Amino acid sequence: MHPATIVKILGLLLMLFSLLGNLPPLLVSLIYSDGSAAAFLYSIGILFSTGLMLWLITSSQHKELSNRDGFMVVTLFWAVLGTAGCLPLLFSPATELSLTDAVFESISGLTTTGATVISGLDELPESILFYRQLLQWLGGMGIIVLAVALLPMLGIGGMQLYRAESPGPVKDTKLVPRLAETAKSLWLIYLTLTLICALAYWAVGMSLFDAVSHSFSTVAIGGFSTHDSSLAYFDSPLVESIAIVFMVIAGINFALHFFAFQKKQFRHYLHDPEFKFYAFILCSVSIVTVLVLTFNGTYDSFWEALRRGVFQVVSFATTTGFATADFNSWPLFLPYVLLYAAIIGACAGSTGGGMKVIRILLIFKQGFREVQRLIHPRAVIPIKLGKKVMSDRVVESVWGFFAVYVMAFMVMLLALLATGLDIITAFSAVGACINNLGPGLSGVAETYGALPGPAKWILCLAMLLGRLEVFTLLVLFTPMFWKR
């Protein structure tokens, strides 16, 4: 490894984060005169000077990154910047958060999890509310992609970072010949979707502040809101419809958006196996949910059941975490159906969390192949995605991911139970955090503020594991990683 180069990159990222993360809310604070400007000024000073110092002491380093360096930088990026993001929340007198709560809120924002320890959002300063939303927007695509676009100009290659950011099966490993151009194209699509979403929210009655703030968390599939009651605050079918559309779009592989943007055609969506399975999951779970809500008389009419059911299914299945209904009290198995939909998650290459639809699809295909082999033991039965045959190496990596995911889930579940939580709260909290969903069931259906401190630190680890898709973080704990 090259420690000096890693420190240099970390310094650059800290300087970048100090400006991107704190200047916009500082401007909001000055516009609204909400008294929180000092918190952001202190944060800029501390983070920028720290980053500058790290960069200056390693500025002479120009070595190319190895794969191991890439994994280290990506992990440090999320862990260090997630922790550094707590500073405005600590410095602001309006939040009154402990260090544990401030770090939890910051990591939850940057990883687009959307789990919050704060209640009384409606009373907070606009700049703090905007900062929480901005954290999710920056984390949604990942500041790392922006850094990949900039690092080549500084003489540092970025391909290793991009590879470490997206482990596992990816259909399109390189969208354009140069990675920097890819990153810029993805950011352009991301910005465009955010702008259109904000204008749509504004057009149907949201204030400009709420429209911009909620467009950040919608396109980032984050789920933070500027109100305690989330999108239920607006009680508007139009607002909910816009949210559904953009949550579904943000949950699709951005490679598909790239080709739609580049070729000005949409047929390739319908030919993509992952997209078709993603649409099937959303539709089938929505139908089951609406039918159960209707026949159990949960709502007064079918249309109300349709409105609440479809919104909540899309919100959970894409791992956004917005709420317009008390899903925790829904009848029968529905709360657990929503949680399992979040475990499946959105598409690979999207801003969503979960295990990713492509992995679940490959697991299903592998399971079906094993059944066929029982009937025809000597048959050679390939696994295909569309017309492309998947290598056994890809299938093995998916099963390896699934095994490690389940083991990590169980270890953290036992750790939460050891802190005194009940089984439903512990299970849903781990599921919500490792899948970057946010709201859970029972004691964490609304906020995580009542959890004991050790439980919050465990869930911070779960959020990082989910954002890094497990392997990127766990590989650092293997002896082989540190051998020369």
UniProtKB/TrEMBL annotation:
Location (main, coarse): membrane
List all membrane-crossing ranges. Answer: 39-58, 70-91, 134-156, 187-209, 238-256, 277-299, 337-364, 397-417, 423-445, 457-482
Q: Record's Pfam families? A: TrkH
Question: In terms of domain of life, where is this protein from?
Answer: Bacteria
| Keyword set, alphabetical order | Cell inner membrane, Cell membrane, Ion transport, Membrane, Metal-binding, Potassium, Potassium transport, Transmembrane, Transmembrane helix, Transport
In which residues is K(+) bound? 112-113, 221-222, 319-320, 436-437
UniProt GO MF annotations: metal ion binding; potassium:chloride symporter activity
Where in the cell is the protein located?
Answer: Cell inner membrane
Q: Which GO terms describe its cellular component?
A: plasma membrane
Q: How does it sit in the membrane?
A: Multi-pass membrane protein
> What PANTHER family does UniProt report for this protein, alphabetically?
TRK SYSTEM POTASSIUM UPTAKE PROTEIN TRKG-RELATED
Question: What is the purpose of this protein?
Answer: Low-affinity potassium transport system. Interacts with Trk system potassium uptake protein TrkA.
Q: Which family does it belong to?
A: Belongs to the TrkH potassium transport family.
Q: Please give the name of this protein.
A: Trk system potassium uptake protein
Q: Which species expresses this protein natively?
A: OM182 bacterium
